[in-house]
Amino acid sequence: MAGQVETLGGIAKPASEDVLARLQLRDSARESYANLVWRRFRKSKISIVGGLVVIGLFVLAIFSDFFSPYDPVALNMRDSYLPPTTIRFLDAEGNLSWRPFVYGQKQILNANMTSSWEVDTTTKYYVRFFVEGFRYKLFGLIDSNLHLFGVDEGAQIHVLGTDRFGRDIFGRSCLAGRISLTMSLFGTIISVIVGSVVGVISGYYGGAVDNWIQRFVEFVQSFPQLPLWMSLAAVIPITWNQFTIFLIMSSIFALLSWTLLAREVRGKVLSLREQDYVLAAREMGASDRRIIFSHLLPNSLSHIIVVTTLTIPTIILAESFLSFLGIGIQEPLVSWGTMMREAQTLQTLGFNQWIAAPVFFIILAVLGFNFLGDGLRDAADPYSTF
Q1: How far apart are CA 202 and CA 296, in angstroms?
Q2: Counting C-beta atoms within 10 Å of the first and last residue's C-beta, which end of the chain has fewer, N or C?
Q3: pLDDT digit string (tens) for 251-295?
Q4: 159 and 237 assigned to the same domain
Q5: What is the C-alpha separation between 306 and 380, in angstroms, rounded?
Q6: Residue 355 belongs to what domain range?
Q7: Final residue belonging to a domain, choices 118, 150, 165
Q8: Which is nearest to 343 in space by CA: 227, 183, 169, 114?
Q9: How far apart are alpha carbons 115 and 335 in whole angstroms?
């Protein structure tokens, strides 16, 4: 019977833990590496949550026009600093409504010549889904005016409020994710390519090549990252077009991010180059390029994936910080850092705290990628549990 062994006395007894481990190892050998990684990764609930957060942020960024009820770049000074709209199920009299609704808001002038917004509870405006609104091009190709939610005519719904120009903060935060996430991915891709190639070459050839490469890596690591990023970003001419600035900024972020991966891959390759299959390939006359790209790099892929997921949040924070200081992404491009620039003054934060709402998108992105990276790091070696 499965899970049992025969003894000398002919009596069947439960199999020992050692035998069960061997059976599990034999069964796991039949599975592909991807299946083993996924089976172990899904055991980590926090990593699953991190992956879902990352996917959600990318969905919001890609379909930002669909999720935004109002044009995120259109100016509307009449709705300046409009506080977040409260979605209600109970009206002012305490009556329950199964349909979500909002109340209108009217602006009043205070005695000290400042203005504030007051909720008008006389009329309920129901929240509707899949409504028509401003026109946009989905993926830059498909013309559409469909939006996820909206309200009846006569009221507005701004779930995170508006900024000083009356622009919807939620819609702009979704739109800003395109720049922040894309720049971090682009910079990480450059970092991964450079770090992987340098690490493999250093570990494979060894000797003087390894020595010179590692001294150069240490030289690059000796620079303080943040001041160097700031100085390089500050010398970019503001007259350059935004796409060029985007590419240059991504390259600047990748400039100092590849050294960690190079060290990780080098250590992995130092152990792999003495394996039997690498020695056999070398004896059979395989070229160095074939050994590197067919044997060493694929077997270092787990380390590369893990470092990639941990590099992305670092670049997100760097971009947000530089844009917050005004030396990163500039208008008309919008990123989470440029949106946080409006929250620099205590006066703004004191009266309009919702201006700092984009910081929660940054926190979600950083935590999501870190949780995802931790799960991938544990799942990258599925055989360690056996």
Answers
A1: 12
A2: N
A3: 887 877 888 888 888 888 888 888 888 888 888 888 888 888 888
A4: no
A5: 8
A6: 172-385
A7: 165
A8: 169
A9: 29
